């Protein structure tokens, strides 16, 4: 059968970090602290849960192909921008790549960062051009534009996964002004930071801002992503998207979650308080960041060793050794429930070796 498969899919794919979970289990921890996937540890808004349950009996029909309920909720929340929606932000990333990238086209990626951009570009026959971030993991606009010259599309994540680094709106504006392709700004974690890039949508023809309901809104399991897109790009996106992007249940829940601003604010402030405690109490240096996770520099120890040690103590975190462009002494730790966060602080303090 092998000869039938496209070379891009013969091996590898998205790597899920499961080894630490196995180590924790083997060490007798049946309920470990799960701090490896940047999930929201709190359940979604009860209003979202009810909205989802209410539409279940009607799922014999196809959903509304215009996603009107969700788009209306987005406009109420953010203002009168043009939006598109998909199955998670991963679905948005896929569709955007499909619209712009043909065989052999080059796509810039500010590195180190989220691995799915590269995989999705490769799946479309495109070629990734890594644009290195600075030593402090921020992006220098002039370097970025120089290295990304000639590419059609560029990915920049802020706050960045896994470093947590957030760019200023001025940096993004400078890139939009000097880059000739489309800049995809991945803002999966932006609610935990609060920087507002939305006004840039009114100024630049080449900016797409991707967002997700998976993180601050606790709907990772329902798979809802959306993006602010320029006016000209909306119809292009619709042509490339699957006919029904959001299912009925996800759409109802996502719209209700967006409307429940009190719930999301509470969650964000708890996460921000814990982020500060991680910075203050972790014995290793923590990279300053704006997400619902932190990146910790465990040098002179190796990331993989620290991850295994923590797993033995019942705390699952992510080694960053597999992120291209990062040295092997960083771990990424999501902010979880208070008992999980306490468990992390205790365990990392225990294994600390200066
Ligand atoms: N972008 C970044 C930076 C992410 O970390 C993730 C999820 N881990 C995504 C996009 C995809 O999110 P979604 O759940 O909306 O597909």
Q: How would you characterize this protein structure?
A:
The radius of gyration is 20 Å and the shape is globular. Helices cover 38% and strands 16% of the residues. The protein has 2 domains: 2-43 and 262-350, Aspartate Aminotransferase, domain 1 (Alpha-Beta Complex); 59-259, Type I PLP-dependent aspartate aminotransferase-like (Major domain) (Aspartate Aminotransferase, domain 2, 3-Layer(aba) Sandwich), CATH 3.40.640. With 354 residues, the protein is of the alpha/beta class. The protein is built from 12 helices and 13 strands. The strands form 3 sheets. A 7-stranded mixed β-sheet has the order 2-8-7-6-5-3-4, sandwiched between helices. A 4-stranded antiparallel β-sheet has the order 9-10-13-12, covered by helices on one side. It has a two-stranded parallel sheet with strand order 1-11. The protein binds 4'-deoxy-4'-aminopyridoxal-5'-phosphate (PMP). 4'-deoxy-4'-aminopyridoxal-5'-phosphate (PMP) binds next to helix 4.
Question: Which features does this protein show?
Answer:
7-stranded mixed β-sheet, alpha/beta, binds 4'-deoxy-4'-aminopyridoxal-5'-phosphate, Aspartate Aminotransferase, domain 2, 354 residues
């Amino acid at each position: 059968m092998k000869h039938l498969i496209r070379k891009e899919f013969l091996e590898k794919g998205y790597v899920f970090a499961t080894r630490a979970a196995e180590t924790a289990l083997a060490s007798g921890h049946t309920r470990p602290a799960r701090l490896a996937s940047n999930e929201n540890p709190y359940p979604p808004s009860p209003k979202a849960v009810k909205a989802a349950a209410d539409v279940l009996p009607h799922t014999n029909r196809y959903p509304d192909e215009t996603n009107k309920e969700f788009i209306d909720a987005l406009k109420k929340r953010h203002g009168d921008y043009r939006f598109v929606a998909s199955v998670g932000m991963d679905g948005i990333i896929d569709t955007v790549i499909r619209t712009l990238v043909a065989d052999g086209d080059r796509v810039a990626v500010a590195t180190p960062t989220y691995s799915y951009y590269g995989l999705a570009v490769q799946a479309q026959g495109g070629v990734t051009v890594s644009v290195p971030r600075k030593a402090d993991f921020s992006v220098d606009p002039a370097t970025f534009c120089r290295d990304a010259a000639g590419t059609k599309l560029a990915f920049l994540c802020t706050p960045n996964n896994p470093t947590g680094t957030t760019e200023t709106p001025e940096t993004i504006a400078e890139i939009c002004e000097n880059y000739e392709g489309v800049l995809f700004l991945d803002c999966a974690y932006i609610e935990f930071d609060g920087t507002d890039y939305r006004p840039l949508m009114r100024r630049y023809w080449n900016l797409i801002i991707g967002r997700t309901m998976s993180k601050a809104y606790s709907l990772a399991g329902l798979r809802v992503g959306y993006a602010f897109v320029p006016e000209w790009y909306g119809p292009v996106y619709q042509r490339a998207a699957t006919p029904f992007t959001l299912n009925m249940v996800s759409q109802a829940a996502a719209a209700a979650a967006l409307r429940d601003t009190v719930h999301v604010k509470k969650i964000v402030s708890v996460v921000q308080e814990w982020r500060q405690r991680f910075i203050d109490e972790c014995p290793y240096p923590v990279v300053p960041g704006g997400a619902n996770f932190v990146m910790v520099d465990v040098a002179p120890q190796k990331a993989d060793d620290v991850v295994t040690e923590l797993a033995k103590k019942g705390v699952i975190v992510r080694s960053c050794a597999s992120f291209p462009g990062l040295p092997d002494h960083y771990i990424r730790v999501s902010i979880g429930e208070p008992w999980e966060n306490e468990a992390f602080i205790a365990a990392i303090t225990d294994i600390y070796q200066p």
